[in-house]
# Entry
Amino acid sequence: MKGTTCTKIQTLMIILLMVAGSVLPLLQPGTAHAEAASHAVDTARNDTFVESMLEKLDFPGMAVGIVKGDQIIYTKGYGHSGPDGQPVTPQTPFILGSSSKSFTALAIMQLVEQGKIDLNTPVQRYLPEFELEDKEASKTILVRHLLNHSSGISTFHGRTAFTNTASTIDELIHRLKNTPLTEPVGSQYQYSNANYDILGGIIQAVSGESYAEYIQDHVYSPLDMKNSYTSTPEAKKHGLATGYQSIFGFMAPFEQPDNPSMLASAYLISSAEDMSHYLVAQLNGGKFHDISVAATESVAQMHQPTIKDPSTGGEYGMGWEIVHGVVQHAGDVESFHADMKLDGDIGVVVLMNAHDYAVRAFKLGMVADGILEIMHGREPVDDAGSITGTYILIDVISAAVMIMLGVSVFNLIKRKKSFRLTPLRIILFAFCLVLFNAVLPIAVLYGFSHTFAPWSVVFSFLPGLGHLAFVLSILSLVIGAAKLIVLGHNLRLHRMKESGNTM
# Structure
């Protein structure tokens, strides 16, 4: 009996050790991540798709994070992070662009929970010096209007801060005093960075911390976002990916400037791994593991459709867009692109260290969309079109315009002594002069600087093509002025000749 009992005990101990050996590894974070990923993500299919898109877009690198429920199930880097060829990893920092706005909205809601901010209170209660060109209307702008982009400040005026001439958020807000309202306060959606820059100022005024300190203390640290930064120089010390831009179709590294005045709207920095922590909190009522950064009601309010957004066919909440049931936000700065998407219990983040506003811009979201399709068991769309073919066409047209202007200059310098004038020739000459040397260049010069952004911003967001468009437009105007002088001279000679013949 005693021997049998010992044998049973030994057998039981062996079984317990075997169970422990199977269970304990699952409790280790790294292994649990790998196990979850193997069951929840078709890694081979996902890798094939992302690598295919990286090649088709001709981008240097990107990082991906996927979460399901309260678990991070997949993080991976693709390509390289800069000219030195360092591979992108899930820990590589990227600039988030306008995805930063969701962090600002979260910070506002945290302060709402603490009773320090009321969404239906005028901005001037928290920022007494805040005012726009319309002093009376400025008094009626509420915090809520800023959050859902219905303040009346236009998209264009929100882009002017990309000139990077303000050194702080407070200075940027002070410079808004001559900014006009293009729509009545609260009446219409107009996506504007300025709204979130002002919110950044409110956070500073109410919390007593700088915006950067607040985000670090109340969002990054609680969510264990160890590779996230609020300063470009600081991030560069810790492996910030080098941004790239397309110059006539060729990807070239770009020295990304620091723009602390727009930190709240566009320049927060994070990694795919850290952003996965952030998405877990967004999917789980503000909770990441045992830490809560916001109440469930606050997160739901941020994700709640509030105002129609004609540009997406969806609606805007607070720091988030809601399009066909997907809660999302993209982000773009000079040389980085980001996408965040929440679809049911699935979250996807894609970070890219390049941008191309001329050709690739509308194709970048295909990566995050495709990953969501794979997660739902559907086939992703991977037809990005011909990037090279489009740029060949653009480059040929650009070369043709330069040649035409060059020929015009040559003809002006080597113009014929005798120039026979006829009514038809004069009409055609005048028509071409007005169209090509006045209307078109003025439309380009005025159109870009008054509908898109100031030319200094165009140069930084559209290098090469932006510079060429500006130079060719100026040159065309100068040639037009010279042609007008030549036409006047020839008309005078023509009259003199006719007068001589008459006599």
